[in-house]
Task: structure prediction
Amino acid sequence: MGTYKEFHRRSIEQREEFWAEQAKLVDWQRPCRQVLDYSRPPFAKWFVGGQTNLCHNAVDRHLAARGGQKALIYISTETGQERTYTFRDLHKEVNRCAGMIRSLGVGKGDRVLIYMPMIPEAVFAMLACARLGAIHSVVFGGFAARSLAARIDDARPKLMITADGGLRGGRAILYQSMFNEAIRVSKSPPAKVVVFNRGLDKELGSVAGRDCDYEELRSRHMDDEVPVTWVESNEPSYILYTSGTTGQPKGVQRDTGGYAVALAASMKHIYCGSPGETMFTTSDIGWVVGHSYIVYGPLIYGMTSVMYEGLPIRPDAGIWWKIVADNKVTVMFSSPTAARVLKKQDPAFIKQHDISSLKHLFLAGEPLDEPTHRWFTEALGKPVIDHYWQTETGWPLLTSAPAVERTPVKLGSPGFPAYGYDLRLLRESDAGEAKPNEKAVVAVVPPLPPGCMSTVWGDDERFVETYFTSFPGKLVYSTFDWGIRDEDGYHFILGRTDDVINVAGHRLGTREIEEAVQAHPNIAEVAVVGVADPLKGQLPLAFAVVKDVAKVATQELRASQEKEVMDTVDRQLGAVGRPSRVHFVTLLPKTRSGKLLRRSIQALAEGRDPGDLTTIEDASALDQIRAAMQPAVR
Ligand code: ATP
Ligand code: MG
Result:
């Protein structure tokens, strides 16, 4: 494993030379005069003085060489619609949209809140903002009024771009009542709202003087040509709020030049993409993965991006592989959550399609357990690469970089520190470096590389306070995740630092126990939380979804299955980690980005209020937790 090690070493020891080289992957209107300004730690300014534009890099610069190539393929299994845009088409639509936005008084530095479903107009809107130097803040479509209002209050947008609704599993989620309510309660509501009408809401109204219809407005800007606004590399391109798994979402502010360079470099070294090839990322534009790898990354690199609205198992569990086959997808990016959904299905669905174009599949967003990793690798017959990142970083911080070196995959490991990250595993007690296999906090010695957040929107102090003060006396970025490094240099994420269970003085990560539970062959998914116990401090409690429900059909079967799971944990981890109970449920409470809401499960298990539920995907999952906590009726 020498080549990658050397590559990484150079990225840290010759930081500026390394990134100056990567900067050549994007277009600059004016080159920078300084690669890195780190005169005010921990704030890092990349490519200072350089002038560039994200929209130019994603669209305009490809017109000459690949104007006729597909840029965006839109597939909706919700509406049955498919639309394809070449780079030339995309350029036209983005110019129209930029013309529309400009006509509503938006200019450089103004915020535009994009609250949209997975439709191409959402991409046009993002790119149009970038074109104008306006700052977009995409809020996941379908977030309830309260979450939306909190983000409006923080970002103070001049304009909101939205739609009548989104679709999920054949069900419409109408937005009107949500954005109206959010605007009503907001302290700094947008003056204008553009609404794209998909024909989902028969009662779609319009507020006079505030609302405009997207299509109607577009028809007045058909021939607009809006020049690119060149911005200094460090000017903000967007604000994106973190998922809120652990609490109050933070407004992550991203720069422009550093982000463009980081994405282009990752397309080359990590994802092994090539201009002209097709990338399929199954995320949503409302998340960071959608920003980086549905929209900006592939387009900046001259690749075709597939945008998919729909579920992974509708009309059947072969749909993603059909998309791969039909569009000769070479790079795919998805999540462990989706992998676990597919794992419950027949793998024959994959075999029905010719996925020979696919080089590899990347997964991120949540811990990838070993059984799921193994299952997916075998089912696909392709490398499945786990990589680890955060909204804050914008691109992976632990990964393998197959284009630099084809390091062997270790199941359940997201690999090595990505180039540019001086990543350390630091002991919580004294901030010392952990030994191999010693559990510690995943941290990064600043400066953070290009592409990472520049600050918390409007709150430099909160940025420093939140991320850089975990280790007294040391200016280090904390990820708030536990990890270990094995003797071979492979890293493993053990869960979040606030997901720790203290059983009679033993500190156990919930992830460790979940891994052990998951080693039982009938467990598809599990959540483990710590519940207060007068004797031991805390006790682990498990809520599990099984693959074969017949095995938990009766009280007796459940009891025997529970015993088997406990025995599995005893063998894997030791009795100290054995859950006091294993409850079988059909659904676990998750955020809309697919992350387990352990904090709500724990609250319910301890008989407390589950707290802020605005980011929950399906609130009925909590009823099952509640029901499981009732004393058994015999
Ligand atoms: P908040 O910070 O608001 O609580 P969040 O941390 O869930 O929300 P994201 O930035 O979307 O918001 O998620 C990043 C987190 O997801 C990481 O810190 C880590 O806990 C988890 N994660 C991401 N990728 C992986 C991975 N490959 N393996 C394990 N965990 C991962
Ligand atoms: Mg986080």
The domain at 503-633 is CATH 3.30.300.30 (GMP Synthetase; Chain A, domain 3).
